[in-house]
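Exercise 7 asks you to align residues with tokens for two separate proteins.
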Amino acid sequence: MPADDAAKPRKGLIQALAVFGERRALVMLALGFASGLPNLLIFDTLSLWLREAGLSLQVISIFALATLSYSLKFLWAPLVDRTAVPGLTRALGHRRSWMLVLQGALMLGLWAISGVDPARDLALMAAFAALVAFVSATQDIVIDAWRIEAAETEKQGAMAAAYQWGYRIAMITAGAAPLILAETYGWSASYAAMALLMLVGAAGVLAAPREAAHVVRPIPTEGVPSRPALELPEWAGRLAIFALGALILGSGLAADATLIGETLRAVGLPGAGEALVAAWKLKPEGVYLQLLAVAAGLGVIVLAICPLPGAKTRPGVYLFAALGDPLRDFLVRYRGAAALILATICLYRLSDFVLNIMNPFYADLGFTKIEIAEARKVFGVVMTVLGVGLGGILVARLGLLRALVVGAFAGPLSNLAFAWLAVQGPELWALFVAIGIDNVASGVAGTCLIAYMSSLTSAGFTATQYALFSSLYALPGKLVASQSGRIVEGSAAVADAGGPLAALKPLFGALPPEAYAEAMARSSVSAPALGVGYLLFFLYSAVIGVAAVVLSFLVLRRSAALTPAGGVIGDAD
């Protein structure tokens, strides 16, 4: 936040809403569509095509490994920051030239998928899917960088909201249109039509205002001699170690060790590979292995990019500058506050991340699949869209850090709605109320966090720093979320055993018989005890959100006092 942000007059509602009608926000809507379309086509819709082609679920699930590109995108983000597109960069600018090239590649990739029969050429289909995923993840890097650089901090909420609106429109389109087209014209024609829809993104790029001149941070190589004969094997060795670290890190972030298992199989250790894949899937022990893999993978990557002790070489200088300088820049600019900022980012959505057992909760409460689908996938989406827009308005009206505090309250308070739902039983109106409150709050919090992370980047490192924040901020949530089911069933067992928790069981005595009817069969506890377990879990999910509230207040309080190396907390250079 700028140091004088507190002194600025708050914007009126009309002024805040006017931001959404600006040219940049409308462009962001188209770019959000271009970002969401290939994502769902590869990671969701394609699975139905593969299933209809007669492939097993095990084979289909391997295609999910393409998500590694999204988890690891910060590793090649420096290339996006530093590399110009020949011919186009001078005409369109750095970010727009990258976006246009990538959208053309996505069109070609989706068109190539449309021409493949997965029953005959599964390997080719997998290769094209992986290519589309990689290009799509790279496009996200560039779109995020353009969004951050194209608008002032106070408008980042509206830009983030427009992006999410476009993304959700694309998800609805990619989830329904290909199926409708495939029913009549076949899957090939369906995916060819989806390739043409990427023209929406290209139109957005061409309609975008010209960006400011891009700054490429220099890499200091003075005094480092050029030795091509020695550098070639060093590059090969460093990149091999880098790839190993990326494999380990990506397997941890994606919670899937299939690629490591296949690698072990290829080197003659099939038993070790199978054992590792099985251990990765254990609940909750596998989560600790995944987090260990993240730490180990990062360690191997650091080893790959660090200069050789006592001897500077060009590969070491280039790699460390490309990946190390963006992190060092952040730590230097926010020294004295970097730990506080990173803690805020990592814990901000913690109360949302632990809600990974919601479908089982709705089923245990007695709702039908159709009721759950209507509430979550139809009404819930509408409420999320409203919440995203509300978040953008809050950032524009209140300023970035005040909005961040509001968003920090939204998550834990909305979880109390589920605690209330747990004692209502299978009342459809109550389900809609709880989901509506939660999705609006989630939309607000998500938009505020995106705007805040955007403000932390600096010129020349925008793509790399934001990609790093967005790739790693969910790690603490993954660890805590692994315990959600244990907390529910453990609390229920304690309630059945007597003691203080048993006093809560009468709250569930008057519920209809379908509420928690399968408690004994599924969790080996009584129906009222399972209700107690869910009630305590949602209260716990609200309590752990207090950490984000406290940290957000600390960031707000210290923002005016801390001016590290020419910046303040939340102030983009």
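Second protein for Exercise 7:
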Amino acid sequence: MEQRIYPIGIQNFEKLRMDGYVYVDKTAIVHRLVTTGSYYFLSRPRRFGKSLLISTLEAYFQGKRELFKGLALEQLEKDWTVRPVFHLDLNIGKYDAPDSLDKILDEALTGWEKLYGTGAAETTFALRFKGVIERAVEKTGQRVAILVDEYDKPMLQAIGNPDLQREYRNTLKPFYGVLKTMDGCIKLGFLTGVTKFGKVSVFSDLNNLKDISMRRDYIDICGITDEELHRYFDDDLHRLAEAQDMSYEEVCQEVQRRYDGYHFNIKTPGIYNPFSLLNTFDAMSFGSYWFATGTPSYLVHLLKKHRYRLENIEGVEVTEDVLNSIDSESTNPIPVIYQSGYLTIKDYDSEFKLYKLDYPNQEVEEGFLKYLLPFYADVTEEEGPFEIRKFVSDVRKGDIDPFFRRFQSFFADAPYEAIIGQDPQRNTELFFQNVLFITFKMMGFYTQVEYHTHRGRVDLVLRTDKYIYVMEFKQDGTAEEALRQINEKGYAQPFEADGRQLFKIGVNFSTEERNIERWLVER
């Protein structure tokens, strides 16, 4: 069998086609884009194929017909008109100072001015951009294509720095405003990004942009559908099954569980993460490939800044307005988490017009929790999985005291400022709940865990092959009260007929000590 070359990290369409990489044909969608509209915005998570889509559009507008041989666009396009292309890639910069963005824009404009000349009165980025567009049309007789990749990168990297965000916004707003001003000179304007900043932002003047992020007819513009998976990668699935000593059916289910599950609207096909799929087939091994390529530090900043209760992330309900844009001050972390790909649409309440969000798949859920743990407990990202293994080992062996002593060390070594904030009582409770949530959720990948914080339900039921643990947590109460509640409410009754050994455990957390103060066990 001929060796397949997977386009891992390949973002240039010409290189992909010339060097024989595997390509999932999206060119029919490209043709629909350029023939049915003029201005588009597409939001997708990172590593989802946005840059390759931009490069495909660039090759199309450059008239490189030979690159489309054997693809849908070869038959659909008749004219192959060559146009000037202005491709701005904001993904290449590190935006940590006011002039960081200026340097990127100046470099791009200087390159375009070498092709189309300069204007003496063009002293701002917006005027220079307007000038090169005018001269490009005059020189070629063709309207231009403007392609902006990762338009929001400067804004995202400046989350947590309002002054810097304001600088970037004031630079980008008039620059992108040229797309509206120069409408007569533009054939297509296409912007991609992770997020859509709303309100007083770079988008406030661009009311001519068609946002296709949730459009059903563009759901599969990036990523891989189940149909495409089996059409383009069925042999790879068989090879993966053989390599992992699994059946074909088992490997399809595992691939789906790990990498599928992105929904960009309700009742639409699930989309697989292309980066993780390609890496899995290349290595013939499952892994957390997407999460390993970047850490969502700005998300953690938002969660901690707004003292967010982590359990509320799962199944959170939001309106479409919240989904579609975030304000540049980022007062609500959920839209950013959704648009960054860590949450996806799972359900919709048509009566109240609410979208229900959750993690798309196991890779994202497990990776996100692993990344969060060091921010709430005194462990490094590398140590986190080993600590979770110790917790799991304790409960599998019935070692209750070592289990809770390990928890005590988590709380004892946590930095005080991470707990206390401006509201000592509320934030200490929140810290306690968040550490419990992350730990038990991560344990849930290896053993059966049900963790609740709603009144009227037991806080925790944890099952292994030999033991069942029923736990109740109190804050600034007593372990005796917690244990008494388990008995009085009959929390353990459903498990008393089970053959496994049953432990009822009452736990008290002290706000003053900022730690687990005592636990009591009843066998």
